[in-house]
Write a structure and sequence with these properties.
The chain contains 26 helices and 7 strands. With 684 residues, the protein is mostly helical. The chain folds into 3 domains: 225 residues, no CATH class; 98 residues, no CATH class; 170 residues, no CATH class. A 5-stranded mixed beta sheet has the order 3-2-4-6-5. A two-stranded antiparallel sheet has the order 1-7. Strand 2, helix 23 and strand 3 form a beta-alpha-beta unit. Helix 1 runs parallel beside helix 21, helix 8 packs across helix 10 and helix 20 runs antiparallel to helix 21. The protein is globular and about 80 Å long. The two termini are 51 Å apart.
């Protein structure tokens, strides 16, 4: 290890500042530029929102009836940050993942700079956060990057304790990291680091018994803090929580889950790994092609020989990602994010490869850097052309609707700072590309890092938000806020595990599943166009969809189908009154709907309008919350609708094989989605 130590303290500090600055400016300014456009992010964020609304920090209920699928560490972080900033937003929801990535990169630089040198550690750090899979996870409100940070930093800490301190005393920092990782996604945060270090220590010649019992002590101590939360959550959620925890942690590993979740073959991990390493996969391809040169092959053989006789740090750099890869080949459930703990170690290997190529095969580094420069220049030129009306008028005709939706955000007017990012990326690409013909491979390495950082800044701040914003359900949520500013909005989704996660987050966790027994007699309900037939089949003769309030032709990013907002009326009033009479004394009073004489003229009925649903007859949803405010709405239009619907139900029962909703107008008003969505801030 002493061979790799750097004595220049000033150089080490300056390199640390450069790495920290590079990773911070790549992520922190742009976390709130894009709205939520997948169901995964708002599903995690709404847990923190429900924590702040209900005050339940152990096992909060979100989306009306959903208990969290994962432990609460990420939700705690989001909730604490949101308390400081004043509300839950896209930025505060994604900030924990970005902070976790920054900590992992900085910790990796500090760990490897003491063992492999400052230059190799700096290149490895830049490669780490510019691998596309790592970059994507650092920008997402998901548990994966937070879990990866605890696993990787836990490996670093355990390696230092086992290899360099001969397992002297207890590694309390590593124990705390493993405990927090378990509170993020489960016991895998304990198993993976201990397994990787245990195998590496054994292969380096340590005694089996000593390694095993000390690793077991670390594992038991790391389980104490998570066990406190699991016990508290079990007391709160009962058998339902216990079954969910067992299925998510053990059923996923053993392939005994009650449903298929990301089932893929073992080689799926290799494919996603090659894709996740992009754009450095191209560097590896160029290197493999250059191996055809006899002189380069001879140098590579010498490098492999030196690798076999390398120190423990280089050996651990190879063992750790291999253990992660083999570990995740066994479960039937496989996702690309499961392999995230491999990337910091693979990035260091790529960093060493770049340094070796700079000495032995400079053309490899120059070719890769030149390709990245061309990509940055082309992206900047394309962005400029899309803002020239003369070009777009000739280019856009004939394009599909999906393509126009994708590039529509790029064609929208952009703020000055977005133009600055695009110009900076293109300018750095031009400068580095020109210097490739004048300078050596070492300068090309520095240029590669600079181009990658500026290109990802433009991607996260300009390109990606403009392209994916049209997928979000944010426009639908804004319409729902206008149509129903207070009170609950009900939903019906055929697929059991799906909900309107995105819209529910943006309206403040007010979208709850429809229940015939517990929902009020009338209200607004969201139903996918493909699910409305199933809704009518289940509630035929009991629930009538009397009016179409709004319709969105774009497919929802959560349920994957167009959505319509209906006004529903429950016809089985006697059953509801009987249920309300059985509630406690402090429950809301039952509805006092009076039937209207059928001889009354239809013209006397007021015109239907998208009014908020009546809350005076709502029943407490005991599985969700204990107390909710009730807003009264004039009952005359509702009475007439109920009477009219009941009369029509007596005259002719609807046939399930025919069009289910006869009350919907032929041409309902369509509400157009917005392409350019600013960051939405939801107050507590």
């Amino acid at each position: 290890m002493a061979r790799y130590n750097q004595t220049d303290k000033f150089a080490r500090v300056m390199a640390f500042v450069i790495v920290l600055t590079a990773v911070c400016i790549t992520f922190l300014p742009f976390l709130g530029c894009a709205p939520f456009f997948t169901k995964g992010e708002p599903r995690e964020a709404v847990v923190a929102l429900s924590m702040l609304k209900s005050g339940d920090w152990i096992l909060p209920i979100s989306n009306g009836d959903v208990i969290p699928y994962k432990p609460p560490f990420l939700a705690w972080c989001i909730a604490i940050i949101s308390l400081i900033t004043g509300g839950v937003s896209e930025y505060t929801s994604r900030l924990p993942s970005a902070i976790a990535l920054i900590v992992m990169v900085v910790a990796g630089y500090r760990f490897w700079s003491r063992r492999l040198g400052i230059r190799a550690a700096m290149i490895g750090a830049v490669v780490t956060f510019t691998c596309f899979e790592v970059y994507r996870a650092g920008f997402a409100c998901r548990v994966d990057m937070v879990l990866t940070m605890f696993i990787v930093t836990g490996m670093y800490s355990l390696y230092t304790w086992a290899m360099e301190r001969n397992m002297h005393r207890l590694p309390w920092v590593a124990i705390l990291l493993l405990s927090c990782g378990t509170l993020t996604k489960g016991p895998v945060a304990i198993v993976l680091p201990l397994l990787a270090v245990w195998i590496a220590v054994l292969l380096c010649g340590y005694r089996l018994w000593k390694c095993t019992w000390k690793m077991a002590v670390v594992a038991l101590l790391a389980l104490i803090i998570p066990a406190l939360w699991y016990v508290a959550a079990w007391e709160r959620g009962g058998q339902e929580f216990l079954d969910l925890a067992m299925e998510e942690n053990f059923g996923r590993m053993t392939g005994t889950m009650s449903y298929d979740s990301h089932v893929n073959p073992w080689w799926y991990n290799l494919i996603t790994l090659l894709g996740g390493l992009a754009p450095y996969t191209l560097l590896l391809v160029i290197f493999v092609v250059c191996l055809l040169m006899p002189q380069l092959r001879h140098s590579v053989k010498g490098g492999f020989y030196r690798w076999r006789t390398a120190d423990n740090a280089r050996f651990f750099m190879f063992i750790a990602p291999l253990v992660v890869l083999i570990f995740y080949c066994f479960p039937s459930s496989k996702r690309s994010v499961y392999l995230l703990p491999m990337y910091p170690f693979l990035a260091m290997q790529i960093g060493l490869l770049v340094m070796w190529c700079a000495r032995k095969a400079g053309g490899v580094v120059k070719s890769f850097t030149g390709t990245v420069c061309v990509l940055a220049i082309v992206a900047a030129v394309a962005f400029c052309l899309l803002h020239i009306s003369a070009f777009t008028s000739q280019f856009t005709p004939g394009l599909s609707i999906r393509t126009m939706q994708s590039i529509g955000g790029l064609m929208a007017p952009a703020a000055w700072w977005k133009w600055g990012l695009v110009m900076l990326s293109g300018l750095v690409g031009i400068i580095v590309f020109v210097q490739l013909f004048r300078a050596g491979a070492s300068t090309a390495t520095v240029g590669m890092c600079g181009v990658m950082v500026t290109l990802y800044m433009a991607f996260g701040g300009v390109y990606q938000p403009a392209v994916i914003s049209y997928k979000s359900d944010l426009p639908m949520a804004r319409d729902l806020e206008r149509l129903q500013p207070n009170g609950e909005i009900y939903s019906f989704v055929v697929t059991d595990m799906l909900r309107f996660f995105t819209a529910d987050f943006y309206v403040g966790d007010r979208i709850v599943p429809f229940s015939y027994e517990m929902s009020p007699a009338t209200g607004l309900i969201l139903i996918g166009d493909d699910d409305v037939w199933e809704f009518h089949r289940q509630w035929d003769g009991k629930v009538a969809l009397t009016d179409t309030v709004a319709q969105w032709s774009k497919k929802s990013c959560d349920i994957g189908q167009p959505v319509t907002l209906y006004r529903y009326v429950i016809d089985d009033a006697p059953r509801r009154v009987a249920r309300q009479e059985s509630l406690p004394m402090d429950a809301p009073a039952p509805s006092s709907v009076k039937p209207v004489k059928p001889t009354q003229s239809k013209a006397a009925t007021p015109a239907a309008a998208p009014l908020p649903p009546a809350k005076a007859d709502s029943v407490k949803r005991t599985a969700v919350a204990n107390k909710k405010d009730s807003t009264a709405v004039p009952a005359v239009p509702v009475e007439k609708k109920v009477s009219q619907s009941a009369t029509e139900s007596k005259q002719a029962k609807p046939d399930a094989s025919q069009a289910p909703v006869t009350e919907i107008p032929d041409s309902p008003t369509a509400i157009q989605s917005e392409n350019n969505n600013p960051k939405t801030h939801i107050s507590q």
